[in-house]
TrEMBL record:
<dbReference type="Pfam" id="PF22944">
    <property type="entry name" value="DGKD_4H"/>
</dbReference>
<keyword id="KW-0808">Transferase</keyword>
<protein>
    <submittedName>
        <fullName>DGKH kinase</fullName>
    </submittedName>
</protein>
<feature type="domain" description="Diacylglycerol kinase eta/delta/kappa helical">
    <location>
        <begin position="39"/>
        <end position="158"/>
    </location>
</feature>
<dbReference type="InterPro" id="IPR054474">
    <property type="entry name" value="DGKD_4H"/>
</dbReference>
<keyword id="KW-0418">Kinase</keyword>
<dbReference type="GO" id="GO:0016301">
    <property type="term" value="F:kinase activity"/>
</dbReference>
């Protein structure tokens, strides 16, 4: 049984459109192949990410401090803080479970994405709003710039590079 050519054509066309849609979506958010995503991190990758998570935790703690004095801090940054705190605690509970590897690559990607988001949001917040005192601003700027450097260091990891890359153009 042979399908009539136009039926075949339209099926092919819809399949091609679907493929285009898929590849467009895949381009907007880097995905790891399923094999890659299940791999665990090397020791070097793991220590870079632990470093990153420590700096992120410092920044989160400073943001909590600043939020006590400034409602705006809380309003603007709560979402990014919660997302990255969640990703970090998942990562850490994973580690606490006694897996010697830090994380699967998939978890690492989630963590880096949320931390990058936190970095971008905090930076945008500081650019847009002057806090009352230079000390308050410095308290956030310090860990923020270190976090930026840590994200830069991740660019050397081939599968994390595209994800860690600071998205300068977003919202600019």
């Amino acid at each position: 049984h042979v399908c009539p050519p136009q039926a075949f054509e339209s099926t092919l066309k819809s399949w091609e459109d679907k493929q285009k849609g898929e590849s467009y979506r895949a381009a907007t958010r880097p995905r790891l192949s399923s094999q890659q995503s299940m791999e665990y991190l090397t020791e070097e990758e793991s220590s870079l990410l632990q470093q990153l998570s420590r700096v992120a935790e410092t920044l989160i703690a400073r943001i909590h401090e600043a939020a006590k004095a400034h409602k705006a801090v809380e309003q603007e940054l709560a979402h990014a803080v919660n997302a990255s705190s969640l990703a970090l605690s998942e990562a850490l509970s994973h580690k606490a479970a006694g897996t010697s590897e830090f994380l699967s690559r998939n978890m690492a990607v989630e963590m880096v994405l949320s931390i990058k988001e936190l970095w971008a949001e905090t930076r945008a917040f500081l650019d847009g709003k002057a806090l009352d005192s230079p000390q308050e601003e410095e308290a956030l700027q310090g860990p923020l710039s270190v976090l930026g450097q840590e994200l830069q260091r991740l660019l050397d990891i081939h599968w994390l590079g595209p994800i860690a890359h600071p998205a300068e153009e977003v919202g600019a």
